[in-house]
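Q: Structure tokens for this one, please.
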Amino acid sequence: MFLTDDKTGSVQGQPDWWFLAVTLLLTALGLMMVFSASGIFAERIYSDTYYFFKRQAVFLAISLIVMTLAAIMPRELLYRTQYYAVAAVLLLLVLTLSPLGVKANGAQRWLGLGPIRLQAMEFAKIALVLYLAYFMATKQAIVKTFSKGVIPPFMVTASFCFLLLLQPDFGGAALMLILLFIMCLVGGTRAIYLAISAFLACGAAYLLVTTEEYRFRRILAFLDPFAVASDEGYHLVQSFYAFGTGGVSGLGLGASMQKLFYLPEAHNDFILAVFGEETGFIGMSLFFVLGAIFFWRGFFIAQRQENLRDRLTAFGLLLVILLSMVLNMAVVLGVAPPKGVPMPFFSYGGSSLLSSFICIGLLLNISRTGKAG
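A: Here is the predicted structure, written as tokens:
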């Protein structure tokens, strides 16, 4: 039952149940794949086949509670948090670089809180979107100027990127810049400023890649992974084998060969490769169909909002999930160099799952209002 405002034509009432339904379907598939991809690894390391599955189930329960709170919270309260969110995430990123940070695989990207590891990058994306949506919606009179319309959002984003590069997290910094570019593009920033900033960003990326040997090796491995199949190209080659083995109908759930310690930690960033191996072309087609419905409903939520801030916030939150999905698929399919971006709703990890469901909760909140019909 929807209530209609006759003056604005906006509606206020039920959230978008179709959007929630497809989200839960994707999550159910992801939880199933976490168990399938991690069971043997968990048995070998922890002597508990269900170790990662149980932890992911707990993460999911917490995420659903947070999603519900985000979906029912007053919009006015949400729209007073942008500066607090930015400050909180900056603090988390600084603490990640402190002795409280946890170092793994040559990077210090996690904050250790007892038995829990928190990756601040996942929440930095949401904080940046909330700030950029606020800025673009409330500063339309100056958004096309350089000193007041360009410098503030670029400086906030640069502060995030600087701390991410110190971890180092080149992929995370690149993702933040892409968010900034697209939000500024739809928010009304002059094209010339965006073109200049894109040119400078590409130049900076080139320098960062060419001055760090491990990044340069990753680029070379991406260009020809089979030439270094036992080194930097190993993950990508094993991912290709997984998709190739899957064929039309897949090997069957639980029958993946790559998860037998060929593809390291297959329940994380490369979980989609295991899904493709076990379910084949049919399963991947289902994944793409569900993904298409998910983003169609998400864009519909954003498009029907009459309030500019609502529209930009919804678009930005959806963009956070879309970019993560696209970049993860690009990596596992060999279209982009490895970036360490998890697949939303699929990859094992509490930070990724929680941040995704915060986005979902806020989108469901916004979906309760908009143009009638």
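A few notes: The radius of gyration is 21 Å. Confidence is low (pLDDT under 50) at residues 1-11.
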